[in-house]
Structure to design on (299 residues):
């Protein structure tokens, strides 16, 4: 189970076209038992860019691989300099209408689970409970030696103290929280060790080339197996870590519904793909179900 290889998938002409008809999505949610699988597209309206959508960052940014991070002190310096700067923006992102709608569906008992490929924590910030973070969370840091977990804000404080005056201007922020910096801007940025054992610190996320924990994958498979339908929100499904669950649902005869403006690698397995912005689409669905935008019970 290799995680998140950078694939060069391009849509084929025989993929079913997108629609603006939200009826199937509304019907599925009304029936309940829906598992949500979300990707980077649900967070773009919160200011966090996508990898592969319009303006996606893969054209200008190669994500850090686990192999590079673990083998090279210089790679770790470059990563933490860029991530430290990016966290100032990434860590302040707020949930948008799409996240709030998903949380509202959950409070109404319409969902049987939420699986996210995102590492931004915005589903939880919006009020969703029991979210499975398939690729981990940038809000936590793990030591590669002793396994100690610590909050990201604690590391941010330590890096601030170790790098007083580090204020480069980034060319952009990427979906993994990296800021675009040159090697000259990275300079002699100081990386701090684990406060427990002095080991190497890594964000508690699954890097490209790293393995998704098997127990986490099996938990997701169980959620899909027990669901009535699968609702994909804002994922191109280019990588197998998400596509596997679409294939599982389709093979079991469960409806797969996708809301994504662009074609996805899972379209051929889907009953429908709604080509609308996530916030707009999910707010309309919530309205049709009598769920106010703020997620509280209707009067």
């Amino acid at each position: 189970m290799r995680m998140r290889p950078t694939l060069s998938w391009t849509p084929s002409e025989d993929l079913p076209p997108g629609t603006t008809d939200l009826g199937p999505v509304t019907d599925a949610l009304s029936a309940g038992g829906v598992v949500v699988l979300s990707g980077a597209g649900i967070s773009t309206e919160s200011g966090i860019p996508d990898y592969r959508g319009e303006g996606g960052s893969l054209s200008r940014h190669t994500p850090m691989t686990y192999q590079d991070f673990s083998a090279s002190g210089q790679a770790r310096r470059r990563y933490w300099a860029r991530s430290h700067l990016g966290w100032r923006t990434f860590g302040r992102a707020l949930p948008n209408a799409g996240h709030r709608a998903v949380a509202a569906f959950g409070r109404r008992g319409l969902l049987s689970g939420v699986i996210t490929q995102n590492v931004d924590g915005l589903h939880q910030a919006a009020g969703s409970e029991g979210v499975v973070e398939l690729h981990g969370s940038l809000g936590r840091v793990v030591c590669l030696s002793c396994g100690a977990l610590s909050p990201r804000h604690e590391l941010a404080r330590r890096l601030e103290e170790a790098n007083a005056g580090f204020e480069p201007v980034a060319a952009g922020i990427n979906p993994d929280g990296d800021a675009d910096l040159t090697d000259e801007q990275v300079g002699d940025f100081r990386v701090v060790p684990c406060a427990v054992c002095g080991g190497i610190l890594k964000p508690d996320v699954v890097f490209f080339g790293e393995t998704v924990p098997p127990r986490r994958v099996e938990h997701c498979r169980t959620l899909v197996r027990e669901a009535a339908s699968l609702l994909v929100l804002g994922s191109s499904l280019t990588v197998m870590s998400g596509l596997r669950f679409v294939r599982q649902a389709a093979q079991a005869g469960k409806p797969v519904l996708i809301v994504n403006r662009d074609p996805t690698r899972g379209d051929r397995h889907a009953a429908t793909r709604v080509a609308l912005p996530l916030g707009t689409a999910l707010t309309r669905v919530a309205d049709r179900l009598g769920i106010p935008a703020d997620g509280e019970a209707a009067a």
Q: What stands out?
A: The longest helix spans residues 73-90. The CA atoms of residues 115 and 220 lie 7 Å apart. The beta strands are 34-38, 111-116, 132-133, 136-143, 149-151, 201-205, 229-233, 256-259, 272-274.
